[in-house]
Amino acid sequence: MRIRDFREDDTPEINLVPLIDVVLCLLIFFVVTTTFDARSVLKLELPRANGQPADPQAQPLGILINAQGRYFVGDREVLRTDVESLKQALRDVAGNDRERVVLVRADARTPWQAVVTAYEALAQLGFRKVANATAPQVTPQVGTP
Questions:
Q1: Is residue 111 part of a domain?
Q2: Which residues of the chain fall below pLDDT 50?
Q3: Sign of dihedral through CA atoms 71, 73, 135, 130?
């Protein structure tokens, strides 16, 4: 007697759902990473260094702005906080040297308007080499009190 098996034959099939999931994830990954390439649209010509040391006598002109928004140009305090007073102090200290590097040091609690006023005075006088002084962030070391 022949016993018939009523189970269907196992036919191999390809399940496309995991394949679609993987392809969709790859598509999202490539779309997101290509948006970071937008900065390559900017055409920048980076400065070149000739390897010679900088002139040690060319000290930067320092502008210090304290937490109250008071200005100090070099070692002199500017009595008023308006643009014209700051411009006059810069003229007195720097003279006609507009190629001199200006180092702006502002307290972390300085009102932003005071910093913008300093930038405005520098721009009106024609200073183009402006640097901002910052302090490195101190990271606490493990095991020190």
A1: yes
A2: 38-39, 42
A3: positive
CATH code of residue 95: 3.30.420.270
Please report, as a single letter, which amino acid is at residue 48.
Answer: R
pLDDT value at residue 47: 60
Distance (Å, rounded) from C-alpha 50 to C-alpha 24? 50
- Our count of domains for the chain comes to 1
3-state DSSP call for residue 65?
strand
Q: What is the pLDDT of residue 23?
A: 94
Kindly state whether residue 11 falls inside one of the protein's structural domains: no
With contact defined as beta carbons under 8 Å apart, do 69 and 102 qualify?
A: no
Say how far apart CA 35 and CA 1 lie, in whole Å.
71
- Quote the Cα angle for 115-120-126, to 5°: 130
Q: What local confidence, expressed as pLDDT, does residue 100 receive?
A: 86
**What pLDDT, on the 0 to 100 scale, is given for residue 107?**
86
Residue 144 domain-assigned?
A: no
Q: Does the residue 137 lie in any domain? A: no
